[in-house]
Amino acid sequence: MGHEFVFIDDENRNHYAHDETENLHFLPDVVIKPKTAQQISEIMILCNDHKIPVTPRGAGTGLSGGALPFHAGVLISFERMNSIIEIDERNLQVTTEPGVITEVLQNAVKEKGLFYPPDPSSKGSCFIGGNIAENSGGPKAVKYGVVKDYVLNLEVVLPTGEIIWTGANVLKNATGYNLTQLLVGSEGTLGLVTKIVLKLIPFPKHDLLMLVPFNNLEKAGEAVSAIFRAGFTPSALELIEIDALKIVSKFVDSTVVPVTDEMAAHLIIEVDGNHIDTLMNEMEAIATLLSDFDCGEIFFADDAQQKAELWKLRRRAAEAVKIDGYTIEEDTVVPRAELPKLIRGVKELGMKHDFKVVCYGHAGDGNLHIRIKKEGNIYSLHNPAVIPILRDLFKLVKSLGGTISGEHGIGLIQKEFMDIVFTPIEIELMRGIKKIFDPNNILNPGKIF
Ligand SMILES: Cc1cc2nc3c(=O)[nH]c(=O)nc-3n(C[C@H](O)[C@H](O)[C@H](O)COP(=O)(O)OP(=O)(O)OC[C@H]3O[C@@H](n4cnc5c(N)ncnc54)[C@H](O)[C@@H]3O)c2cc1C
Question: Which candidate in 33, 94, 180, 415 could, as Cys together with 5 as Cys, close a disulfide (CB 3.0–4.6 Å)?
Answer without folding.
Answer: 33
